[in-house]
Each structure stands twice: as C-alpha cells, then as structure tokens.
Design a protein that fits this description.
By secondary structure, the chain is mainly α. It folds into 2 domains: about 1-35; about 35-75, no CATH class. It has 4 helices and no strands. The longest helix is centred in the middle third of the chain and has 19 residues, at about 35-55.
C-alpha cells in the first residue's frame, strides 16, 4: 500500500461512522463506470432478493461486533 493510501486509510478510519459511510458511498459511485442497463437491472434484482431474504428471515447475518473486530484485525488497528 502506498504511503498516501495508508495515510488516507488511517484518516478515514478515524471519521465518525456517518462520514465513513458517506465516503464509502462516494468512492463506490466514482468507481461505478458502467451505465449498462443490464448491470443496473441485475443489481436491482440482487438488492431486492437480499431485502426479501432479510424480511422473510432466511438471510444469515453477522454480528456487528464480529464484523468490526474482523475489520480491525485486517487493518491492523
């Protein structure tokens, strides 16, 4: 990882959760280089299927604490 990316990552980790999520959303939007309607439709179907799985109780979740711990382990925090 470059020094600049490492510094940006450390700064981003220190942001409050809403700002981290906003940053992540912005970065994902910037990376979305495809305006292909088929891809957009496929994502829409995937999102709807995931929502349905949550609503009907068939989705398997992971506790926030476990996700957070794993992220900290991977990022060396």
């Amino acid at each position: 990882m470059s020094k600049a990316l490492e510094e940006i990552t450390k700064d981003a980790i220190q942001l409050p959760r809403p700002q981290r999520l906003a940053l992540a959303s912005l970065l994902l939007e910037l990376d979305n280089s495809s305006d292909d309607p088929e891809i957009a439709l496929a994502w829409e179907q995937e999102i709807r299927a995931r929502i349905a799985a949550i609503e009907d109780g068939t989705a398997l979740g992971t506790a926030y604490e476990d996700v957070n711990s794993e992220a900290e382990n991977r990022l060396g925090s």
